[in-house]
């Protein structure tokens, strides 16, 4: 953030505001962690923010402090609409285009509120009065820490804030193993531990609360794994029938795509998940090295994200989608070596 942006934010927060904080649709640990951390911080400054999630999020995130601050737009529709319509200041976290919010998109587009964007994805839109965008950051949670620091508010970082920020950084860095994890990231994490974040407890709450059904579903996913050695690529498919058979709950497939990258010689991993309710195949892309899955997703699957982690979608069957996907790989053969 530059000095002008910092001054603008301080001016906006110097008076009472009707504040709403929005994550992207299907929010993950970074989205929920950053929104709750920011909500806790703003409360500590005398504001009264609310978080509105476009839809539900995984059970393994619902233990986070003050999870009850979050409205689920699908279940609390009228209250959420009223809050957005009356908002004077809206923070959008972990996304940079209204289309990432699903049903909230028209409400946000129609809002007369001031917007503040905090995000680390590529190609940000221009809707915000203040845009804090940095694609080199490990996570939006690390950016929220920097945001708080820029506002001279680190003394207000409580155990609850530290817990939320640590959770988001941990999940978005693959437990600190991705290239985006810098020495600064580790210094931030150390400060959060000093502020009360219990790293072992957080890890257990996120990663060690599996149901038997989820582990059985993982077994199905790994059984469906297809390896394309010629292209250093592996992909997984999961049909709606397979999800239903194993009592799928939101978040159950989190991290499945990464198993492909644990194979020796694999540089590109993908998972295709059927969602009959939305009529789409949801796709997650992961890569190692310089191969940009952000560009791949944007060019071929109506998606985008980061260089090494991205998402997309298809509106044809899994069989047609994977056939199309495989047909594309010859064009990227040299990049995938």
TrEMBL record:
InterPro entries: DDH_dom, DHH_sf, DHHA1_dom, Oligoribo/pAp-PDE_c-di-AMP_PDE
Any one Gene Ontology molecular-function term assigned to this protein's record: 3'(2'),5'-bisphosphate nucleotidase activity
Occurrences of domain DHHA1 (ranges): 240-315
Keyword terms: Hydrolase
SUPFAM superfamilies: DHH phosphoesterases
Positions in coiled-coil regions: none
Origin superkingdom: Bacteria
Ranges for domain DDH: 18-169
EC number(s) per entry: 3.1.3.7
Pfam families, per the entry: DHH, DHHA1
Listed PANTHER family: BIFUNCTIONAL OLIGORIBONUCLEASE AND PAP PHOSPHATASE NRNA
Protein name: Bifunctional oligoribonuclease/PAP phosphatase NrnA
Species, as recorded: Croceitalea marina
């Amino acid at each position: 953030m530059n000095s002008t942006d910092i001054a603008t934010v301080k001016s906006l927060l110097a008076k009472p505001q009707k504040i709403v904080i929005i994550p992207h649709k299907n929010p993950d640990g970074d989205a929920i962690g950053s929104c709750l951390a920011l909500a806790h911080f703003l409360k500590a400054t005398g504001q009264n923010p609310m978080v509105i999630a476009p839809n539900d999020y995984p059970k393994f995130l619902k233990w986070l402090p003050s999870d009850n601050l979050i409205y689920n737009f699908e279940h609390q529709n009228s209250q959420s609409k009223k809050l957005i319509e009356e908002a004077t200041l809206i923070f959008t976290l972990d996304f940079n285009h209204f289309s990432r919010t699903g049903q909230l998109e028209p409400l946000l587009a129609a809002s007369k509120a001031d917007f503040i964007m905090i995000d680390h994805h590529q190609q940000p839109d221009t809707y915000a009065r203040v845009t804090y965008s940095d694609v080199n950051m490990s996570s939006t949670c690390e950016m929220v820490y920097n945001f708080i620091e820029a506002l001279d508010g680190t003394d207000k970082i409580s155990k609850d804030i530290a817990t939320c920020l640590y959770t988001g950084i941990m999940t978005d860095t693959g437990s600190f193993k991705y290239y985006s994890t810098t020495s600064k990231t580790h210094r931030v994490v150390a400060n959060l531990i000093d502020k009360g974040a219990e790293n072992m407890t957080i890890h257990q709450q996120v990663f060690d609360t599996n149901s038997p059904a989820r582990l059985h579903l993982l077994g199905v996913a790994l059984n469906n794994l297809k390896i394309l050695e010629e292209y250093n690529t592996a992909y997984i498919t999961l049909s709606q029938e397979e999800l239903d058979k194993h009592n799928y709950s939101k978040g159950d497939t989190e991290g499945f795509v990464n198993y492909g990258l644990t194979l020796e010689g694999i540089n590109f991993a993908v998972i295709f998940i059927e969602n009959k309710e939305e009529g789409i195949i949801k796709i997650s892309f992961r890569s190692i090295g310089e191969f940009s899955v952000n560009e791949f997703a944007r060019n071929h699957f109506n998606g985008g994200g980061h260089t090494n982690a991205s998402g997309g979608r298809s509106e044809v069957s899994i069989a047609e989608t994977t056939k199309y996907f495989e047909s594309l790989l010859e064009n990227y053969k040299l990049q995938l070596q």
